[in-house]
Amino acid sequence: MEDVDANVGVRKKQRRRRTIFQVVHDANDNETYIAANERISEEHHKLSYNERNMICEEIHGVACHAREESPDLLRSSLALLSLELEDLVQLDKLDKKNDNTSPFLSTGFQLSRHSATAGTYVNNPEFQLRFLRSENFDARKAAIRLMKFMNFVMEIFGVHALFRPIKLTDFKRQDLKVLQTGWLQVLPFRDRSGRKVFIWVDKMGFQYDPILRTKLTTYISLAGTRDIESQQKGIVCVALPAVYSPSSSSSRSTNDAIENKGNQLLCLKYTNMAIEALPIKICAIHIGIMYNNRRILSPLERVLLKMIMGVVPRMLPRMTIDIVGAEELRKILSGYGISINLIPVASSGAIKIVEFKKWLKFQRRIDDLETAEAYLPSEIDCPGSNDVVFRPGSSMIENPGNDVFRSLVESKVREVTSDSVSYLTQQKTKDDIAMEIVEEISQRKGRFLRWNNYEGCWAELKDISQVKSKIATTYRDLKLKTQRIRNDLSN
After folding, report:
1. CA distances (Å), 374 to each of 227, 231, 366, in order?
2. pTM above the 0.90 mark?
3. Exposed e or buried b per residue across 428-449, where buried means at least 16 C-beta atoms within 10 angstroms of its C-beta
4. To which H or E segment does residue 183 belong?
5. Measured between alpha carbons, how far is residue 357 from residues 206, 209, 212, 252 in Å?
6. 225 pLDDT more than 80
7. Which residue, 224, 100, 115, is CA-closest to 159?
8. Confidence of residue 104 (pLDDT cuts 50, 70, 90)
9. pLDDT, tens digit, for every residue of 159-213?
10. Residue 70 — φ and ψ, nearest 5°?
11. Burial readout 66-89 (b: 16 or more C-beta within 10 A, e: otherwise)
């Protein structure tokens, strides 16, 4: 019986290999792709049924498993975190007393508390809550992550990063030019679950120095998760390496940098350090490789698949790899709740950077303030999942909050135009209906935002008359559209 099961397993594996071989013709590439997927499957099977189900829901953007926060939870968690941090410091002191030569976890943390400002940065509740949220309020894990973060930023930025947040002004002019090429961006709207989407495109920064790439990625990651909703719900990462000609001189130099073994090892090292240290909850990592009738992977795609096998094991079950055509890849990403119209790559392959530069300009203004929280309520870089936005053009339809808003307006239109409409409903004015919608959005903790083109960010509409006017316009347009459809059907 065991022999039969083994033969069935072998045949299944052979069929799978043949299927993949049809996509990636090169035998070595085929084996690399299979090995990466098998490594992911291996870690996936180590999880319990409930853990697999939870991760699957988060990957597809159909559920959020963050804990519901209350003032008591925040207060008690911060107190527990302080105790755990002190406990880890004492453990390090004991190791030092016993002549343990291994690196000490609390080195950066202890240095950060000896600044002129008496450790106000590391002891800031908003700073500490980032780590608690990233570990779902497990105080011990949050304390370990916080200490790893302090060591991580000290290694790549220097000692000054222990005493204050990292700013754009910490980078040299040539470093900022690398950042502005747009190989890593934050999409302007969230996915359907309310999570920000971080996207790596083109050569994904692998052509640059690994330490510089890590610095820039760290800044974007921290700046893009300043808001509480992103800390609670987590983020989604998308990697879309570009297809480029290996024959051009620029591509040859890029390939040399990408295929350099030392660079690969450094990239993998810092990627794993960032995953373990940054106060960010990564819900899913989608890697999309477009083959477009090619039968061989590019050096970047090959290195990317090989690096997956060295990524920290707990992150692997959250990864997906798809080697498909461009149109199929768009459908797959859309299925994960990511708006494909927001992907910052033109059909020609050029990277779109206009909106990203506005985002960077906005982050620079926040960097200049002592705390981001004092600034964010009035000006926003990315609308929340329940926010309703008003902006000329069609981009606002990509905002998940506008889907809810449109559904609310449509329900009001159906209510008024129904054949069995009540007398009280008939007496409602557009102003009454607009006010009802305002109240429903407010109950969802949503805001009404308008685009400030000069500042390159969103600003909250606080004038209720302006809000009702915009709602009334949407209501009128949908009502006229509904009446036209009814008239067409009756004729």
Report:
1. 11, 17, 9
2. no
3. bebeebbbebbeebeebebbbb
4. none
5. 21, 22, 19, 29
6. yes
7. 115
8. confident
9. 999 999 999 999 999 999 999 999 999 999 999 999 999 999 999 999 999 999 9
10. -140, 160
11. beeeeeeebeebbebbeebbeebb
pLDDT tens, position by position, 230-288: 999 999 999 999 765 444 445 666 677 777 888 889 999 999 999 999 999 999 999 99
- At 319 the three-state DSSP class reads strand
Q: Sort strands 448-452 and 457-460 into parallel, antiparallel or unpaired.
A: antiparallel
Report the pLDDT averaged over residues 378-394: 86
Could you give the C-alpha distances from 128 to 106, 163, 371, 377, 441, in angstroms and in order? 15, 14, 14, 20, 30
Element at 68 (helix H, strand E): none
CA–CA dist 87, 91 (Å, integer): 6
Structurally, what CATH architecture does the domain formed by 168-379 represent?
3-Layer(aba) Sandwich (3.40)
And the tokens for 68? 């519901």
Instruction: Measure the CA–CA gap between 256 and 318, rounded to whole angstroms.
Output: 30
Please give the helix or strand (H or E) that residue 445 lies within, else none: none
Q: What dihedral do alpha carbons 113, 119, 121, 126 form, nearest 10°?
A: 100
**Of 360, 357, 168, 336, nearest to 240 (Cα)?**
336
Is the Cβ–Cβ distance between 475 and 412 less than 8 Å? Answer: yes
* Burial of 419 from C-beta contacts in 10 A (0-12 / 13-18 / 19+): exposed
Domain spans of the chain, in order of start: 71-162, 168-379, 383-490
Confidence of residue 24 (pLDDT cuts 50, 70, 90): very low
d(CA 143, CA 137) in angstroms, rounded, equals 10
Whether the CA torsion 97, 98, 102, 105 is positive or negative: it is negative
Task: State which H helix or E strand residue 346 sits in.
Answer: none
Q: What whole-number distance in Å separates Cα of residue 295 and Cα of residue 29?
A: 9
Backbone angles phi, psi at 312, to 5 degrees: -50, 130
Would the pLDDT of 475 be above 90? no
What is the spatial distance between Cα 456 and Cα 357, in angstroms, rounded to a whole number? 9
For residue 372, pLDDT beyond 50 = no
